[in-house]
Write a structure and sequence with these properties.
Blueprint (H helix, E strand, L loop, with lengths): L3 E7 L6 H7 L7 E6 L6 H7 L3 E4 L5 H13 L13 E4 L11 H9 L5 E5 L12 H18 L10 E4 H7 L8 H11 L4 E5 L15 H24 L7
Parallel strand pairs: 1-2, 1-4, 2-3, 5-7
Antiparallel strand pairs: 4-6, 5-6
Length: about 250
Amino acid sequence: MTRIGVVMPARDEEQALPLVLAELPRARTPVVVVVDNGSRDRTGAVAHAAGATVVREERRGYGQACLTGLAWLLDGAGLVPPLGDGDVVVFLDADHSDYPEDLERLLAPLLAGQAELVLGSRILGGASLAALLPQAWFGNRLACFLMRVLFGARYTDLGPFRAVRVGALRRLAMGDRGFGWTIEMQLKAHSRGLRVVEVPVRYRARIGQSKITGTLSGTIRAGWRILTWIFAWRVATWRGPHSSGP
């Protein structure tokens, strides 16, 4: 039986997190790991009260939080026995912008053997500019355009809601510790020939202010990191198919 592990990076999401955990489908009894990424509120306490495993990670960064959650699920840091290559890891934000009920849409192609990585596309799901802010919409479209032109990789979104087989995830050797996590995964997946499927997912305005697009500095840092990954990966692919990127 395929086991499901859910990694939820969270920083100061005391209000939103209980709603996300309550809406997460439990039919497949996923193992839920909330990575408290240096919160100053009760994020860890509310996650624990809702039945999730809480791992504290003081080193800030979206990718860092994801790596910490993966270590708990895959590398013997917490889960016994750890997830195996045939199992699935799901990444889901803790801000209530995604619909956790859409988890089944992401799992279906994986469980049917049609994909190794499934990306939840907010664009295909018809996200409005009230939810996916204009700067996020523009940044996504630009990044996807550049990936198509430079690499022939056809994506519609860099959405954080995604699911991947553990064996495929290990092949990606993820390493970005910040805002480049999602684009690193997509560039490497394309370069290494993973079977990737995009499915439409719903999207709504998040609870609270975004750590990325909610501030000018966050938007600039995220945009710079994404563009750095794209152009550095272009150079890396000239050096060889297994280069590690920036």
